[in-house]
Design a protein that fits this description.
Length: 228
């Protein structure tokens, strides 16, 4: 049953092998409830089953260099792709927070790619785009906050903190910044800024230069920079 659930939701083995018994129990508790929800609402739970753990699949532990934290997926059909802040290619209009991220990126340094919707190309370079809650019901932002997801995603941060050194954490907004309590500051680089939403972007997200600061840090430790 449990192996079937892992397969059904495409949970990557490298991450699973690092979970403690308690963390595995938490994961399966969520997956069992989620399976029921997908069966009851097959077209209105986002993202699709096979993309729930897309952030982990695209960014293996061994390749991970940067972590960006979000809250939960976009509740609009066709938007969520398992990567925080990202949307599927071709989605229009682009969500405001994502627009603001690219405005800051353009202000910060030369924009290497014309892509401004699907952030898969970031994930494939070692950027973990992790939401605290990995699923949502259509039209109901925050609807899956009570499923137990935050325990599960906290365990992913524990793995990173334990297994890795010199990871850059970009923590945007108060909810993401709470997570710095899980991070050993003497092992990693933590950059803080307001959330890129229209409500807070002018309070310091614009001008934070997190993209160039990330690349400067990676360069300083001999790692390849991110082609943002």
């Amino acid at each position: 049953m449990n192996e079937a659930l892992l397969s059904e939701f495409h949970f990557p083995l490298d991450w699973f092998n690092e979970l403690s018994p308690e963390e595995i129990t938490n994961l399966f508790d969520v997956l069992k409830e989620l399976k029921t929800l997908y069966e009851a609402h097959p077209s209105s739970i986002f993202p699709e089953k096979e993309k729930v753990f897309n952030a982990l699949t695209l960014c293996p532990i061994a390749a991970l260099k940067v972590v960006i934290l979000g809250q939960d997926p976009y509740p609009t059909k066709g938007h969520a792709n398992g990567l925080c802040f990202s949307v599927n290619a071709g989605v229009r209009p682009i969500p405001k927070s994502l627009q603001n991220i690219f405005k800051e990126l353009k202000n910060d340094q030369f924009l290497h790619h014309s892509v401004q919707d699907d952030l898969t190309y970031w994930a494939e370079q070692g950027v973990l785009l992790l939401n605290s809650v990995l699923t949502v019901q259509e039209g109901k932002a925050g609807s899956h906050f009570d499923l137990g997801w935050e325990k599960v995603t906290a365990s992913f941060l524990e793995i990173i903190n334990r297994k890795k050194n010199n990871v850059v954490f970009l923590l945007w907004g108060a909810k993401a910044q709470i997570k710095q309590n899980q991070i050993e500051l003497n092992k990693h680089c933590v950059l803080l800024a307001p959330h890129p939403s229209p409500l807070s972007v002018y309070r310091g997200f614009y001008g934070c230069k997190h993209f160039s600061k990330t690349n400067n840090y990676l360069k300083s430790i001999g790692e390849k920079e991110i082609a943002w």
